Amino acid sequence: MRAKKVSLYSLTGFSKNNLQLLRLLIQQELTLRYKRSVIGIGWTLLNPMLTSFVLWIVFSFFFAGKLQTGQQFAPYLMAGILLNTFFNQGLLQAANSIAANGGILTKVSVPPKIFAFAASLAAFINFLIGLIPLTLVVYISGQSLSFFLPIVLLVGFFLALFVAGVGLALSVIFIRFDDAKNIINVLLLILLYLTPVFYPISILNERMQQIVTLNPLTSFLDVFRWSFSNNATATPADFIYLSLTGIIFFTLGNFIFKRYWPRTVSML
Amino acid sequence: MRPVIEAKNMDFSYRVLTNHQSSLKTLFKDFVNRKVRVENYQALRDISFEVTKGETVAIIGKNGAGKSTLLKLLAQVVPPTKGALKINGTVAPMIELGAGFNPELTGRENIIFYSALLGRDVKKVKQKVEAIADWAGVADHLDYQLRTFSSGMIARLAFATATVEVPDLLLIDEVLSVGDGEFAQKSKARMQQIIKSGTTVVLVSHDLVTVAELADRVIWLKKGEVAMAGKPSEVIAAYQKSEI
Q: Is B86 helix (H, G, I), strand (E, B) or coil?
């Protein structure tokens, strides 16, 4: 008899070989999307820049003058778009990943969560790649990178936990009800407007400000902008709020998934 | 020595909605009108058996008797609704080979990805990629995308990848050979070699001749329950008698 050891497997349900699979899945998620395009993964760099440019033309007219002194609108907007894309795309892909790989999951014994984690981590990596053009925009607009830059990694990590957790819970719902997808799309749109992605929070009335501050994505975004190029104010409370959001939703999502998965798998 | 499979009083049932529309609106409407009911469909009932190391066990029975469901439980794709199942060792399911193959990836990438799905060590597989492709007869296509492969080539590649490593427990759902002519012979030979090499095997088949030839023990499933289990000759004889 071997003594029971605390291993990676006992903690996460993943074996060492599963981690290799996770790496392959992330690789696929990052490269397959652009397999047939000419500039390939270059789109990951170009996409946020183009989107930001369009929104910048539209919104700088309204909001650029409303920022506090020292803040710049272009990096403010682009940081918002990068983080929002991370959340939106990561969430939808994580939520879809399990249904999309149903053919595999009903034939091979793989921990199903691995697909949602891969989607969330791929969105994280896309986000990190997006920091390169953001750096460019930061310097063009006359700012410089902050000393607190490493905190961006923590923000990304907790957002990845948040995305994976909510994605896991949604994945079960998506398999059970097709309609949930449409509802989620609307909810994500509402969430976009409740996050100060392209407007400064100061333009809102007091009541709306309270609501927007309650949105955890606002804390993620403020800490991100602050730690990247000191382009927003963030408090320790924001940091605590975002880390708790990540941990709690991750735990909750895993719990919901574990509970409903055995009954859901036969619907695949 | 611990048995490779320990199954105790396993039940498997799933809930089905009659008139399932997969839409919240119609579902809600139908629920109110009591047009939909949730029914428990019991696919397996009170299944208990053990398989020791090196044994080859065949599962026979009519269509819908629960053979494939039982194999899915053994593959640990779904957990039993009731009862307990314990499997000691690595499992390789030969159920619909090539599940997980991606047409956009190259042959090489697919070999690696499929092996990773089966829980194998990617580093070890990388050294065997050429040998696998060679055996499957697709070596000159290895770095082309899978969508350029013919369906026969895909089947051969999947078979070669799945059987390159001998697992502790091999689950076979009718796949005893693939391809045509020469390759069918070659794959059948490899399969028999694996089965006779001392691996534990559970196989589902309608081909009673093959079952009699390969199995040490036969389990006959009837409407989700074990109708009979024991020596191949006796169980097969009883099964054939009940067919008439």
A: strand
